Amino acid sequence: MARPYLKLGEILIKEGIISQAQLDDVIKVQAKEGGRLGEILLKMGVATEEDLVVALGKQLNLPYVSMGAGLIKPATDQNLDHVVSKEFAIKNLVLPLSKTMNSLTCAITDPLDVILIDNLRKMTNCEINPVIATKTEILKAIDEFYGKRDILKAAVKESYQTTDEFGPALEIEAEELSIDRLIARAEEAPVVKLVDLVIKQAIDERASDIHIEPFKDKIGLRYRIDGALHEIPPPAKHLHLPIISRIKILSKMDIAEKRLPQDGGFTVRIEGRNIDLRVSVMPTIYGEKIVMRILDKSGVGLDLAQMGFLPQQLELFRKAIRMPYGLIFLTGPTGSGKSTSLYAALAEIKSPTKNIVTVEDPVEYHMEGINQVQIKPEIGLTFASALRAFLRQDPDIMMVGEVRDLETAQICVRSALTGHLVLSTLHTNDASSAVTRLIDIGVEAYLLMPSLVLIVAQRLVRKLCSECKEAYEPMQEERDRFDLGQDLIYRAKGCDKCNHIGYRGRACIGEVLFVDDEIRQYIVPGINAPKLKKVAVERGMMTLYESGLKKVRDGTTSLEEALSATIGVE
What we know:
The chain contains 23 helices and 18 strands.
């Protein structure tokens, strides 16, 4: 049965915004002076702009979007500023939000303006899918979207128009530029502005890494957001050397050295917070590539409770880090969040009554109240030498960035046995494999058995966007195979808030092996990881695979995402 059509005034009365008497008064004014009902209601102060737009949306059965809900946010990777110009958007109070095939979703204030809809259709060659928003919020969103992009676009456009005093910049070979000239160009306003904008936009879009890479005829610029790389409009090729030099200067690197890799870093201050950037330079056949890792403590949130561990896993983790001594390992591949978990653990247990020291390569987050050491192998400051020095510094807790060799492993074990709490990382697929790895590299089982208290294996999975995740009924085969135990799970869909990716943010899935007296009996020479894992599971340990499926059941992530993160560790 068709839904009964209600007039705007009737909807406002039904929603309790206005009374019948107020509507009658407005109708009298309209009959006398003319004009639209909504404009008169607004002028008389009877209803707000939002009240009218929400009611109009219900009248026309159109979605209402607002900035508060994060829905007036155009997709960043669809060049929507080229689809609808800033001038047209401001003049007609329209904002493009997303484009799928030949369908363009736009926020507008007056969906009854058929001329505007028709003009949009002709201009974009797309069918228009209107959603409704207030004039105030559309203007604010237009300013934010086009303003931000205009700044970066202008800087990029300016980079293509810049020439060098020796002639067209694209004709200059790298070898022809002297060091003094490189430094001078790196400090020029357009280059400084461009580098600043690239970094600021990356931080605004929650990127974890910035890739600036040279190719034969162009520069590549990409941001890694929630684990996936996204292309960004790049600057002109001829600015590659000045950009690299600018970043090297900020990172305190040798700008004359172009043949060898270099590492460095610097700190930027944005909106009242300090953000660390870790910089790596690598020579390629077309010049140097730079990767900047963005280490934003405020964005990450160094809070164990927010990492994503299940309640029973979090309880064991907290129990271990509050022990007076012992050895704790976090394991997993590069990019699985091990360092973040270590820092979150330190943030939870740090205290003025404890002397906490770390040795790292590199120092990723600068933490107040903790003594952090950056290793420098070229001058003999290695993990092992730093650890030996630490033992003369009266430490309570020591954090070692990574155990890479037998000497470092032995010092960690002995430190744990002599009354220190030691936290470190290993690269193994699961928790039980860490034990066999340590024994394989030469750590004596009789020393490892009493010192080890906890091993945490972890992975990161992308979280489904809370605004658009879609419930569906898995096939019976999937339900049986993965023991889903429920009729509905969620999958990615895509909306404006998540830039039509379907995911926003990441969460940790973990495998927490607490080494109690029963487990210690199995830490002997010749023990294999599957046997140890079986014993741990029998004692209640939840595997990475099971943790991933738990995240699927509670709607945190999709089945595909969980399986891709735990493949090979069932």
